[in-house]
Design brief:
Elements: E1 11-15, E2 20-21, H1 22-34, E3 38-43, E4 48-53, E5 56-62, E6 65-66, E7 77-80, H2 85-91, H3 94-105, E8 110-113, H4 117-122, E9 130-131, H5 138-143, E10 147-148, E11 153-156, E12 159-162, H6 168-179, H7 204-212, H8 218-242
Parallel strand pairs: 1-3, 1-7, 2-4, 3-6, 7-8, 8-12, 9-10
Antiparallel strand pairs: 4-5, 11-12
Helix pairs in contact: 1-6
Length: 243
C-alpha cells in the first residue's frame, strides 16, 4: 500500500488533542512506524486523548509528551491530523502555535490534513503558501493568505496538505516521501494566482456517513454534559479571578 521509503532514524512529532479524527492519526502513524520512524504523540495534557469517528467517540491514544515537555529541535518532522475539535483546541494554545512555528522556521517537513491546517493559519504561516484542507475551511485558509487548491494532495516546499480521510492513501505516500527528506527543505509549489472556487455542495463522504451513523449513546450524552459543565465552571472561575 505504501512506498518503500525508509524513515529509519527519523523522529516524528504528532500534534493532536482530544477530538482528533481517529483514522487521520492512526493510519499515518502506522505507516510511519512501519517505515522505521519513531513517533511521539504531543498534546496539551498528559495521559490519553480521545479520538472520534466523525461525531462518535472512538478509542484513545496515549500522549508521549505534553507541549511544555516537548522540544521541536528533538524532531525531524511534524504531523498534524484533523478532526473538528482537536485543531480548534490547538489553535487556541500559544504553546502549540509556537511548536508549529519552530518546525516551519527550521524548514522541517510538516504534513497536515482535514481541519489540521487551522493551526498553520493561526500560527501565521499560511500567507503566500499553496495548500489544501477540508473544503469547509477553504475560506479560512484563503482569508489567512493562502492559495487553496481542491486537490487530494498539495506539496509546497516543506509542507504536504490533503483534504481529509478520503485522500489518506495519496496523503500517506506524499507524507512519507516528504519526511524522508532532510531539513532545511526549500522550493515551493508551482504558483497559482488564484484559489480554486468554493464548492457547490459539501463532501458526500460526510453527508452519506452521517445518514447511517447511530444516534449518540447515553454514555456519550452524559460525557458531553460533564465536559460542558466543567468548561462552564472553569470560565466562571476565570471571570471571578479577573474581577
Amino acid at each position: 500500500m505504501f512506498e518503500r521509503t525508509s524513515l529509519n532514524g527519523r523522529r516524528v512529532a504528532v500534534l493532536a488533542a482530544d477530538g482528533f479524527e481517529k483514522i487521520e492519526l492512526t493510519m499515518p502513524v502506522k505507516a510511519l512506524e512501519a517505515k522505521g520512524a519513531e513517533v511521539d504523540i504531543i498534546s496539551l495534557r498528559s495521559g490519553s486523548i480521545r479520538g472520534v469517528n466523525l461525531h462518535e467517540p472512538a478509542s484513545r491514544v496515549r500522549v508521549t509528551r505534553t507541549l511544555d515537555e516537548a522540544d521541536p529541535s528533538d524532531y525531524d518532522a511534524l504531523l498534524i491530523p484533523g478532526g473538528l475539535l482537536s485543531p480548534d483546541l490547538l489553535r487556541q494554545s500559544a504553546e502549540a502555535r509556537d511548536f508549529v512555528r519552530a518546525f516551519d522556521t527550521a524548514r522541517k517537513p510538516i504534513a497536515s490534513l482535514c481541519h489540521g491546517p487551522w493551526i498553520l493559519a493561526s500560527a501565521g504561516l499560511t500567507q503566500g503558501r499553496t495548500m489544501t484542507s477540508w473544503p469547509g475551511v477553504r475560506d479560512d485558509m484563503v482569508n489567512a493568505g493562502a492559495v487553496w487548491l481542491d486537490k487530494e494532495v498539495v506539496r509546497d516546499g516543506n509542507w504536504v496538505t490533503s483534504r481529509g480521510p478520503q485522500d489518506l492513501k495519496p496523503f500517506i505516500k506524499a507524507m512519507t516521501t516528504l519526511f524522508a527528506e532532510m531539513a532545511p527543505i526549500t522550493g515551493s509549489a508551482a504558483r497559482s494566482l488564484f484559489s480554486d472556487p468554493q464548492r457547490k455542495s459539501p463532501p458526500a463522504l460526510v453527508t452519506t456517513a452521517m445518514r447511517f451513523m447511530p444516534k449518540p449513546s447515553l454514555r456519550t450524552l452524559v460525557g458531553v454534559a460533564v465536559v460542558g459543565a466543567g468548561i462552564m465552571a472553569a470560565n466562571k472561575r476565570r471571570q471571578s479571578a479577573i474581577r
